[in-house]
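Crash report, auto-generated. Payload:
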Amino acid sequence: MDLRVLESVQRRWTKRVTGMSGLNYRARLRVLNQYSVQGLPRDHPESYHSYMWNHLFKHIDIHPENVNLLDGTCSDLEAECARYEAKIAEAGGIELFMGGIGPDGHVAFNEPGSSLVSRTRVKTLNQDTIQANARFFDNDISKVPTRALTVGVGTVMDANEVLILITGQHKAYALHQAIEEGVNHMWTVSAFQQHPKTIMVCDEDATLELKVKTVKYFKELWSVHSKQIDDPVAFESTRHG
Amino acid sequence: MPVTQFKNCRILRDHELVREDLWVENGRIINPEELFYVQKRPPAFQVDCRGSIVAPGFIDVQINGGFGYDFSFDEDKTEEAVSVVARGLLAHGVTSFLPTVITSTPETYRKVLPRLNKRPGGEDGAGVLGAHLEGPFISREKKGAHPVQHIRPLEKGFETVKEVYGCLDNVAMVTLAPELENACDAVEGLTERGIVVSTGHSAGSIMDGERAFKSGARFMTHLFNAMTKFHHRDPGIIGMLTSKRLPLHELYYGIISDGIHTHPAALRIAYKTHPNGLCLVTDAVAPMGLGSGRHHIGDMDVVIEGERALIEGTDTLCGSIVTMDGCIRHFMHSARCTTVEALEAASLHPATALGITAQKGTLEYGSDADFVMLSDDVFVRATYIAGRQVFAAPGQAFIHEPVQ
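Recovered output after restart:
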């Protein structure tokens, strides 16, 4: 997942969310995270805990009990995955799933080859993902974790609404596979073609591998798209659903 | 214990002013991530700091008195003097200080020292970290305003120190002249006791200063004042600031930046030469804080005109009456340094010199929650000790809102 994308969206969302009155500790906002990298302690600066604290949680008044993260340091990883699925069910299911994709079209850490009906489990990261993450570990490949706990494709498909953020030319081919080719477990984001309510938000560069016809179609729907948000922003959106 | 979250502020952390919240519990600064992820507790109170700068509480390592009291001369009123000064300092962001006693007799030391107990700060005033004994082992030529008849040599080095001062338990810092015979023995003895030794009131050479440093003297008292004038062929102890024989990162020096005792150009020279060692001190005397006009202090008649305190009927300065926040502003203006550098010169640097950075001088997790809320132009809005508000400037109410 491209963290910079998530960062910029979260910044905007955080601004809107923190600007909202009424978001206080009693608010029923509950957050569950998509994945956690195995072996990284909570207080490591590159852990998901650190990332989420610095980019979202510390900016909003959310009760800590409403925050759920997969624990990549526990001894029984399978039990942790089962606990997480149970937690999702207990919360009434996922209302909105928000995330990005990898250049290989993976969602969360559902690497190419993942089952499209998978649940929360342990996954071994592939070379591309490890390379992409090396920059967070002083560019030392040996320091990059190789396994992660992740929500499954099936887990995300159960969400009420799915929001995927795709920006930059390096994601363009993945976007093409996501919406113009078939459902294929080598590009796990393509599974959302079968979800009733998916929005994919992208910038101009991300559309570079799409047919001109596809891009034109969605661009001409701008008047419909702009009703999705209160303050239309100058980026293109591709809606699927 | 209830946690308070200070929001909407810029805190001084890692040598930068960053937009971060400050979290306080039980008198200490805590790590919010640990509270959030491990304890899973929200804060009990939130405080809107209205965009204030939050800096570690200021530390004054040289202050002779204030508000009409003098630590050296009011030897029968020591507790009262400490109490009044400690309370008065809160308005200037000072949360810890070293009451300073100038050259005095053994009798005075025996009376006063046991009463200058180290004590934590709080609603009643800034904390006392220990006494600063400036003299009597100083140079007669460089006595400044010290009484010459009580200046004495170090006949037996550290033994003499113990004989003259009596009990050293409450002593945090000692100023002496490094060129005195047996000075190094005194320095070693004091350093071994954990007391910071400062070279000052000295007619010594740079080599005298370096010898004292090697014996353990890590501080210098009011740089430029009461020491050999800097000469390009004989820099005196001022030359230590660029000595190639010393690990400079361990050398600290006090400087009075009231715009009067140190020329701005001299301040700039010190700042440019060794910025990390620079510690702002007030060296304030009894008339500090009394406001303009005539005052009778001890057996002196003093006139305060603006920022100067003069002996009545003369043009002679009778000491500094600057406040610590005034020093910071003067320093920023004269040295054209950054706000961070100026704030660190009043907090981090003195704390490092005293070896107490684990509790004071920073806003790191685990340190004491002594801090100051400041406006952008470094005026004190509120002062906190152990997480409790101990001073708020008029019109600056910071409300602790309970979290619903």
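Post-recovery validation: The first helix of chain B runs from residue 32 to 39.
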